[in-house]
Inverse folding.
């Protein structure tokens, strides 16, 4: 916006003058540069010889007040950098003591009114009436720059922005010297009254304020300050709100608070001041009449300003005053009304294109459009701002084409560039949050840009209204780029100006000058002799303007990571540098970006071609041989458009450059450049074997321009990742190069290289000796050469192509082109046919660039003849392994056996000849080489030695300690090599699945029994009590229990059970126990147990307390040992397997009374049952039990219906009942209720042998009659 008058386009802020503080250099210079008419001649002088304040407080006060100046604040409604309490932002100037106000009226004309006729023919007023005077800048004043039909001048905005303040703050020293107070106060009264008189006589309604800054003094001298200040206020007739006092010793923080409060107190007066000016302008607009001029126009063709022109002036003024009040919505409406009036039929359309008023109207139209856009950006209407910008461009273009000099000249393009620049500057000053280009730090070494590339439309736009993409407000970089584009068009049009029009005005005839005036638009643009000077003359520097604009645009796009635009702008900047011959500057910005251009991957070849040729030209001028080689290699590709006058030959790239020592060496990666050669390698098959030939095909094709010279490679290096040796193809200088065939297939013989090549590329196989071959490596344009290669792998694994490097070694340079990825090439296999070379597509079901190298196929046979389908826990397995040599020659074999299973498994493997208990093997090498994750118990190794063809060797492996049901995997590996080829290891691996299941499961019951031995009592003396005290013999109570086990077979086959025994693991509670042998229940004893068969067994347990007084319960930990074997195994101890089944812990209460029932049939009478109820009292208390036998429909009984049994401590008593059942072959249920009389507790009757029980009680079986 520098081309426009500053006051026309700048944001208007209320002006506040600081009088009495030191004036700054900028304020003094600005006051002297004002060109307001009659300012010096008739301006109102505000003068005071009172010295300005000085000292520390005065300087700090001026500083904090100038910080409230918002001249450089962003043009938006966010008040972030200034005090929020200040409300309306203001402009503050420090002027010293003197200031000059502009005159309100112009001088009357120097010529008198005409004497005859007596009435003025123009105004219709009598000739003797005094002149009607107006403002010096009014169109009604003869000497005004707008007289008689001018629209407006920037001086009117200058008047209100820089010359007429809304408020003036006068600073005076306030004495605290008691001897001088009266004199100094009187001086202040006189000075203030004089200043008020001067401001009042000027005619402006500027607010007058006074601030007293106290001089240094003591606190006791401040007692009469209020009275003195009140006296001065009354003498000067000041408003109490217009006078302030600053006490001595005030701090900087307090001064800031004072400054903020002072500016805040002016807010209502400022608003009222500009509101009064708006009312005055509105009243004049509403009159709808043209004021009478001071004097009529004297020119015959001159005319006064029309009514529409006056309305436009009033609307513009109302908008300015609203902007002073920062009522941006109202200001925008006034500006839009003035804009529409300006472009109406009666204003702009009535101005002739040759008239200077036409350019004045254009300047005013641009200023109005700028102010409208600023108001819209201020209120967040970004889309409306873009539309206003575009609308003004179209309307200006239409007016200029209709009334002006057209838009096909450099003046219009200069305006286009300037108009785009204006939009960029408006966006920058507005600081729109969504378009902010500030960089926000997010961590050490990291940064993130804030802001988008464009702002979203405002919410006030109706949802259904279509919005074009360009109507989204883009960041300023977009507008700067557009400005540079039109600056280039401006330069092109300027260069088309004929030489006769470029002659300076003083050297060309008048007719030529007039012709130029009517042909060229010089609105805010230089004349033709400056725009396009003759050779040897200085003129306008278009390149500097374009470069500066592009650099500013580049910065914005770069901050937002818009990479493609950054590259495009960089190219434009470089091209501008090239045009002015600044090769080094162009090279500095082009060379770093060449290798990382995004256009290369996006396929934007035309742009990349421009970039490449520009870079090559710079490199050539600066003798950068390496850059020339890099660019020439890519420009040689036929993907770019060839230059008709250019010789494409890589071998002659540096022909015109001076030679360098050492010669330049360039390494290019195919992934980073557009190559003129392509190379790919394909494996014939997806798999190969160690020691067997593997067919590989290398294809090299040329994509160079058809008229370019052939490329002669010196060497091709192929490096594999995996187990293949590198291959090196060298140029055969003895063979005649074939440059005519479109496709040529050659089979090459590879040979060993005597020593490793120190120049080989770094690769996973760089330690291997390369294979070398000779070939024709000269490739002509569009030619394809195919090389069939045969490799013999020596190791197994996966092989793939790591890199293919094409080398050119010339006297002037070395160039290496490395291809590390081939995904972009379609794999195919070439073969020679009767019609010539043909290719077929490969890789539909595999990756042809990879090959899996398998080990040499093993011919060792491994079998396990005695492998069973299932094994059982605790079973020791002896697995036979047969190894047979089916190779045609002698081999050296070693066997490895690994056991895989659960990590916590205790299972282990060992050779039969190892000592029991896990002793070390006799040969330490047998367990060498264990896996790091496996112990020696899971890994076995044994050397078998040399085996002749068809020989067989047997190994036996013992698997033991399989205590848990689980699945195991036994891996048997035979590692061998042919005696004739000891360097090639061969492995044969066989995996055996071993499943271990539990052979048995069991359920258990712990049943009470009646011990046949009598209980001890207090009336019998035992002999052991007088025996040796060292001998201990249990003398406590004893009980008999029965453990019933029901063992079920879960095996898949019948098993032979040799023995089942009950083992006592632990007995607690101070007791001893005796366990009887197994007693099979319910059937004849049989040693064979079929699958899912049941074996019901009883074991008697006698438990006796060690001490008679011990009443603690006794717990028993038991387990069941089952010794079994398979039916086909021998009866030797080695074939027996012992399976241990866990038994839950059982508890035997030894100190509580209980009731045991036992029954036996009568031998003399069928159906008669003798049932005995034994009541035990193991306690040391006298117990009384009430017994009641309930009647039943199942039987009749004899015995006491109810009785009482009293038991002494440590005693038991038996009560017998005789039951006669009413039926036979059934279970009867006698109900004897036994109640402890003292505790009133019913004791449960426990059944014993050949009895049952349910929840109701015991059950007794009555045999059927025979």
């Amino acid at each position: 916006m520098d081309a426009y008058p500053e006051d026309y386009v700048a944001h208007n802020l209320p002006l506040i003058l600081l009088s009495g503080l030191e004036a700054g250099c900028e304020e003094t210079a600005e006051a002297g540069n004002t060109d307001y008419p009659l300012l010096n001649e008739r301006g109102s002088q505000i003068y005071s010889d009172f010295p300005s304040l000085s000292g520390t407080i005065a300087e700090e006060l001026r500083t904090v007040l100038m910080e409230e100046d918002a001249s450089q604040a962003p043009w938006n409604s966010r008040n972030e950098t200034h005090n929020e309490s200040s409300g309306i932002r203001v402009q503050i100037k420090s002027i010293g003591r003197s200031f000059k106000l502009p005159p309100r009226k112009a001088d009357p004309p120097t010529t008198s009114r005409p004497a005859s006729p007596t009435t003025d023919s123009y105004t219709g007023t009598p000739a003797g009436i005094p002149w009607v005077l107006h403002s010096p800048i009014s169109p009604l004043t003869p000497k005004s720059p707008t007289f008689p039909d001018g629209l407006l001048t920037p001086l009117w905005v200058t008047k209100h922005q820089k010359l007429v303040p809304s408020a003036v703050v006068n600073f005076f020293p306030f004495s605290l010297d008691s001897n001088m107070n009266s004199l100094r106060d009187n001086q202040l009264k006189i000075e203030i009254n004089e200043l008020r008189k001067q401001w009042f006589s000027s005619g402006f309604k500027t607010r007058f304020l006074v601030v007293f800054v106290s001089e240094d003094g003591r606190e006791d001298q401040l007692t009469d300050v209020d009275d003195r200040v009140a006296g001065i206020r009354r003498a000067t007739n000041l408003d109490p709100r217009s006078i302030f006092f600053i006490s001595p010793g005030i701090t900087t923080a307090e001064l800031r608070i004072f400054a903020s409060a002072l500016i805040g107190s002016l807010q209502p007066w400022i608003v009222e001041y500009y509101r009064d000016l708006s009312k005055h302008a509105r009243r004049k607009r509403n009159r709808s009449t043209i004021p009478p001029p001071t004097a009529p126009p004297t020119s015959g063709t001159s005319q006064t300003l029309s009514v529409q022109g006056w309305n436009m002036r009033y609307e513009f003024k109302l908008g300015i005053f609203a902007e002073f009040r920062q009522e941006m919505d109202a200001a925008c409406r006034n500006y839009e009304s003035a804009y529409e009036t300006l472009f109406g039929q009666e204003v702009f359309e009535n101005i002739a294109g040759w008239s200077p008023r036409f350019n004045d109207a254009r300047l005013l139209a641009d200023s109005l459009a700028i102010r409208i856009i600023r108001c819209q950006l201020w209120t967040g209407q970004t889309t409306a701002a873009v539309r206003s910008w575009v609308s003004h461009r179209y309307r200006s273009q239409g007016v200029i084409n209709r009334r002006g000099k057209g838009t096909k000249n450099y003046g219009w393009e200069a305006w286009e560039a300037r108009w785009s620049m204006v939009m960029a500057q408006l966006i920058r000053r507005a600081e729109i949050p969504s378009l902010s280009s500030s960089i926000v730090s997010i961590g050490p070494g990291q940064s993130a840009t804030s802001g988008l590339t464009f702002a979203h439309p405002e919410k006030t736009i109706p949802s259904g209204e279509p919005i074009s993409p360009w109507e989204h407000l883009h960041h300023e970089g977009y507008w700067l780029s557009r400005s540079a584009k039109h600056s280039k068009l401006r330069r092109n049009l300027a260069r088309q100006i004929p030489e006769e029009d470029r002659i300076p005005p003083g050297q060309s005839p008048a007719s030529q000058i007039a012709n130029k005036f009517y042909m060229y638009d010089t609105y805010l643009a230089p004349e033709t002799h400056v725009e396009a000077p003759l050779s040897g003359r200085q003129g306008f520097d278009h390149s500097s303007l374009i470069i500066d604009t592009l650099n500013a645009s580049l910065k914005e796009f770069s901050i937002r990571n818009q990479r493609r635009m950054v590259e495009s702008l960089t190219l434009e900047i470089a091209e501008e540098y090239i045009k002015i011959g600044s090769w080094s500057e162009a090279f500095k910005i082009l060379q770093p970006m060449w290798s990382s251009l995004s256009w290369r991957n996006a396929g934007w070849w035309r742009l990349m071609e421009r970039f490449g040729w520009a870079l090559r030209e710079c490199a050539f001028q600066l003798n950068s041989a390496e850059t020339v080689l890099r660019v020439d290699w890519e420009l040689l590709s036929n993907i770019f458009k060839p230059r008709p006058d250019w010789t494409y030959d890589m071998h002659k790239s540096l022909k015109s450059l001076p030679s360098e020592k050492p010669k330049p060496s360039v390494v290019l990666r195919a992934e980073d450049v557009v190559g003129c050669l392509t190379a790919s390698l394909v494996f014939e098959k997806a798999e190969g074997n160690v020691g067997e030939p593997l067919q590989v095909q290398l294809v090299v094709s040329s994509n160079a321009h058809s008229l370019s010279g052939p490329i002669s490679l010196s060497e091709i290096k192929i490096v594999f990742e995996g187990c293949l040796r590198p291959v090196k193809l060298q140029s055969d200088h003895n063979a005649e190069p074939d440059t005519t065939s479109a496709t040529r297939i050659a089979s090459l013989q590879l040979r060993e290289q005597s020593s490793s090549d120190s120049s080989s590329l770094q690769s996973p196989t760089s330690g291997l000796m390369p294979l070398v071959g000779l070939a024709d490596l000269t490739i002509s344009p569009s030619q394809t050469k195919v090389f069939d290669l045969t490799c013999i792998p020596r190791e197994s694994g996966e092989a793939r192509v790591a890199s293919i490097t094409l080398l050119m070694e010339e006297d002037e340079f070395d160039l290496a082109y490395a291809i590390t990825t081939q995904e972009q090439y379609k794999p195919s296999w070439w073969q020679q046919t009767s019609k010539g070379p043909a290719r077929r597509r490969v890789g539909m079901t595999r990756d042809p660039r990879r090959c899996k190298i398998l080990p040499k196929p093993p011919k060792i046979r491994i079998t396990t003849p005695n492998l069973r389908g299932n094994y059982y826990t605790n079973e020791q397995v002896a697995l036979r392994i047969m190894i047979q040599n089916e190779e045609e020659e002698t081999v050296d074999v070693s066997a490895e056996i690994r056991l895989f299973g659960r990590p916590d498994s205790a299972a282990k493997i060992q050779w039969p000849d190892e000592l029991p208990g896990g002793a070390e093997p006799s040969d330490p090498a047998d367990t060498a080489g264990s896996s790091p994750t496996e112990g020696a118990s899971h890994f076995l190794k044994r050397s078998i030695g040399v085996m002749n063809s068809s020989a067989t060797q047997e190994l036996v492996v013992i698997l033991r300690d399989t205590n848990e049901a689980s699945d195991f995997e036994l891996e048997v590996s035979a590692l061998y090599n042919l005696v004739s080829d000891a360097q090639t290891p061969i492995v044969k691996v066989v995996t055996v699945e071993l499943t271990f299941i539990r052979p048995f499961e069991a359920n258990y019951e712990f049943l009470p029994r009646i011990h046949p031995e009598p209980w001890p009592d207090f009336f019998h003396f035992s002999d052991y009590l007088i025996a040796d005290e060292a001998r201990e013999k249990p003398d406590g109570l004893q009980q008999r229990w029965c453990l019933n086990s029901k063992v079920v077979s879960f095996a898949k086959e019948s098993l032979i059970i040799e023995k089942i025994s009950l083992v006592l693991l632990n007995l607690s509670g101070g007791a001893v126990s005796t366990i009887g042998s197994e007693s099979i229940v319910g059937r004849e004893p049989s040693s064979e147990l079929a699958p899912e068969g049941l074996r019901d067994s009883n074991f008697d347990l006698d438990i006796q307390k060690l001490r008679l007084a011990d009443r603690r319960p006794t717990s028993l930990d038991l387990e069941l040992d089952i010794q079994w074997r398979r039916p086909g195994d021998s009866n030797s101890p080695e074939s027996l397997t012992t399976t241990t089944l866990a038994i839950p812990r059982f508890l035997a209460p030894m100190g509580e009374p209980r009731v045991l029932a036992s029954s036996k049939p009568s031998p003399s009478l069928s159906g008669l049952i003798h049932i005995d109820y034994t009541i035990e009292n193991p306690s040391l208390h006298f117990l009384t039990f009430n017994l009641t036998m309930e009647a039943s429909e199942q039987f009749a009984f004899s015995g006491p219906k109810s009785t009482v049994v009293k038991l002494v401590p440590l005693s038991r008593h038996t009560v017998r009942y005789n039951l006669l059942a009413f039926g036979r072959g059934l279970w009867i249920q006698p109900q004897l209720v036994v109640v402890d009389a003292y505790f009133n507790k019913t004791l449960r009757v426990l059944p014993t042998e050949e009895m049952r029980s349910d929840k109701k009680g015991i059950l007794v079986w009555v045999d059927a009659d025979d």
User: Anything to note?
Assistant: The chain has a mean pLDDT of 87. The first helix runs from residue 6 to 9.
